[in-house]
Amino acid sequence: MKMRKRRVGIITFSDGREFVHKELLEMNKHFEDRLVKALEETGEIEVIRASEIVWKPSLAKKAGIELLKAQVEVTIFNYAIWCWPHLTVMASLFAPGPYLLYGQINPKYPGMVGLLAAAGALEQIGVFPERIWGEPENPEVIGKVLKFIRAASAVNRLKGERYGTFGGRPMGMYTAAANGDQWLKEFGIDVEQIDQYELVIRAEKISGEKRRKGREWLEKLANVIYDGKQLTPEILERQVAMYEAAMEIIREYELDFVGFKGQPEMTNNYATMDVVEAFLNDPYDWNGSKEPIVAATETDMDGALTMEIFKHIAQTPVLFADVRHYFEDKDILDLCNSGTHATYFAGKSFDPEVNLKKVTLYPESFYFPAGGAAVKHFAAPGRVTMARLARQNGKYVMTIVPGEFLELPENEMEKLAKDVQIEWPHAYMKLDTDMETFLRNYPCNHIHGVYGDYTEELVHFCRLKGIEYRILGSQK
Ligand SMILES: C[C@H](O)[C@@H](O)[C@@H](O)C(=O)CO
């Protein structure tokens, strides 16, 4: 999967007395060099430096404009000596936020004083920057910087995105239907409404060659169980055609992420959306590797939004699941949903051959008379961060649920799945919190997440957006 580097601007400030500035210039530059090197070494960041160290107002303005023109996603204001705070304020009028005030360790000069004076000045005018202090070579310090940058770039990457909702509120699910005006106002996301019929019309026009290519690839790499009724080669090809149709619409309408109603119209009359949803979320399909396109089932808008935030923060595929069952005796939460588990989760690999070996395309059950394949697998073990953005009394609240996907013997996973829903994918999770706390606080039926520890990034995201958050479990 191709990672888009996060574009970060840096402005280093100085003393407003020219003779002091000149005296300390080489040292100041050296501190900037060290920070730039450490940022670039993360492999996630492209640094844009202002052309000059800022010691007078005209240079503050010039530096800010340079970063604005370079379309940076975050600006770091860098302090190693005493810096006159109005220079930061003036640069902030042009340099794109969010802002991180970075303090270098340089005890012989009042760098920390400069940082705090600038922070206070910004806050007086309603701009609330993050502050980090330390040696750029310290992995813990640069780790903190990176977490902030991931969250800040996610805030900016959402801006101007388009969400396509195929069909309306599914099966009476209030939590799936959000308000487009609120999305635009709070996140800068435009919502496009598309009729599911458009998918059917376009799917019918997808060539036999394209259908066959998808079906044969799936048959070759995964285990396909045809039952002659709910799942036949023809129905699987119909799901492939719907995927191709969805891709066509996504490109044509310039959509960044999507949701499909699916139930009951498509699942009663045409085919389930499972193959479409899983492979949109995957970093590949039968045509090759691609960027994952977040796809929520049941047109769950806030679910899709949570996933899109995760995608920008972690730059990996994102899981969508139902909170399905709790095995009390084993303390295992079963996350399971028919459609949207990307096959990436089966093997945690970007290589489809690795993951699809562990995937079975199962005939759908009685809920879905039109038939189709459910994309069944078990999520690979590992530390995960799950979360959900939900509206409570009109306001967004983020519930963050850290935990672990468990390593269980294959036969035990099959046994657990049989007791729940054999044909659907499962992720067996051990929560950091206890089940009672989870049930009392979790805001809806769907949950989303990625491998890795991203709690701090989500917290930064919420702070930047003024969203209330709660963490169910400790931050590890
Ligand atoms: C079979 C049901 O209609 C499921 O689709 C339902 O349990 C859900 O997935 C709800 O999120």
TrEMBL record:
A Pfam family in this protein? Answer: Fucose_iso_N1
Keyword Isomerase attributed:
yes
Residue span, L-fucose isomerase C-terminal domain: 335-469
This protein's record includes keyword Cell wall biogenesis/degradation:
no
Query: What keywords appear on the UniProt entry?
Result: Carbohydrate metabolism, Cytoplasm, Fucose metabolism, Isomerase, Manganese, Metal-binding
The molecular function terms of the Gene Ontology recorded here are: arabinose isomerase activity; L-fucose isomerase activity; manganese ion binding
GO annotations of cellular component type? cytoplasm
**Domain L-fucose isomerase N-terminal-2: where?**
258-309
Q: Where is the L-fucose isomerase N-terminal-1 domain?
A: 6-160
Q: Which InterPro entries does UniProt cross-reference here?
A: Fuc/Ara_isomerase_C, Fuc_iso_dom3_sf, Fuc_isomerase_C, Fucose_iso_dom1_sf, Fucose_iso_N1, Fucose_isomerase, Fucose_isomerase_dom2_sf, Fucose_isomerase_N/cen_sf
Q: What domain of life does the native source organism fall in?
A: Bacteria
Return one Gene Ontology term, BP aspect: L-fucose catabolic process
> Which PANTHER family did the record assign?
L-FUCOSE ISOMERASE (PTHR37840:SF1)
The name on file for this protein is Fucose isomerase
